[in-house]
User: What shape does this take?
Amino acid sequence: MVVADLSEARIYSANADLSTLKLLATVRNPAARTPERNLLTGRGGSKYNRAGGLYQALAPPSRVHRERSEQFAKAVAAIAGRDCASTEQLALVASPRLLGSIRLALPGGVRARLRSTVARDVTHESAARLRVRLQRELGSAPEARQSQRR
Assistant: This one.
């Protein structure tokens, strides 16, 4: 089971009824909380606007955060594929912005074992609260999938 948001992902091993969760790995994305200006190498250009008396930026909008989150999603997918046994089914619980990226980055064999997905950000909940929430949301895979498609 993978529980992730843009800054952290936790990979758990769980039994069928989710009564026990065992933390296998934690992956952090420090770029998610870093201001974009600190991730860029150079300063963008600017020009003086005579009409307004101000300098204006000439640099196009940056995609650094988006690129870093895609790299993070690929890293999470690779670790999930490595840490999940070949017979285990996988549940993916992630923030909506990250869910699709992780799903697309999963290797084909792991993607075939994907049991259900939940678009929620529950990464920072305590283990007990997380277990109760996931038992409710992932109680039965077909119902959980249908509720997420609506």
